[in-house]
Amino acid sequence: MMAMKRAVILLSGGVDSATCLALAKANGYACYALAFDYSQRHRFELTAAARLAKAMHATEFRIAPIDLRMFGGSALTSDIPVPKDRPQAELTTGIPITYVPARNTVFLSFALAWAEVIGSYDIFIGVNSIDYSGYPDCRPEYIAAFTQLANLATRAGVEGKAQFQIHTPLLHLTKAEIIQTGTRLGVDYSLTHSCYDPAPDGRACGHCDSCMLRLAGFAAAGLRDPGAYQ
User: Fold this and answer.
1) pLDDT-derived band of residue 83, with 50, 70 and 90 as boundaries?
2) In what order do the strands lie in the sheet with 165-167?
3) Which CATH number fits the domain that encloses residue 11?
4) Number of structural domains, the chain?
5) What range defines the domain where residue 40 resides?
6) Are 185 and 169 in contact (CB under 8 A)?
7) I want to staple 190 with a disulfide (CB 3.0 to 4.6 A). Which of 39, 44, 81, 226 is the partner?
8) What was the pLDDT predicted at 91?
9) How many beta carbons lie within 10 A of that of residue 116, not counting itself?
């Protein structure tokens, strides 16, 4: 029997990463899920990531500790207030204060290291260029550049054993299309967490950018959001 190809999946615990994990599994990958404790304001997402990894039968799940609060510069890693109730037109324009400097570059670097160790050449990340809140490290150009770096900066890439691929299956989907895709694949979105400023028990605020994009996505998909809100 042929061994399953291995893939590293960046699993934040939100709608997008859960859908990404489901798509990787549907494509026959043995999924190694990786989350990050980066001293983020919304650490409850790690609880969601762990329960998703278990429920969706990830081959392995790890949480990598990194203290990005030492640098700050974001409402998610400092005491800067999280913006609430921004007009819809502002949600996809400009770079908001919830952008964490170089976050996806840090995360993908860790994923690349783990992939090389386990003999994987496939990394899945749930970035999106449509409903992406203006983050520069969610753009197609960024993913293409990191893919080139991955193949230049690793022993596996230099020796030519295979080419690393950064899979972005959600890149050109709306939030509604992402939710519809995951629903078809059986994702239990009640296990996910998206809020940037949750209550201590994990209930979402319903007013931050992430909550508003999520709520609008479920509404556009014609589905009820099963998340717990304050």
Assistant:
1) very high
2) 60-65, 30-37, 6-10, 122-124, 165-167
3) 3.40.50.620
4) 1
5) 6-220
6) no
7) 226
8) 72
9) 18
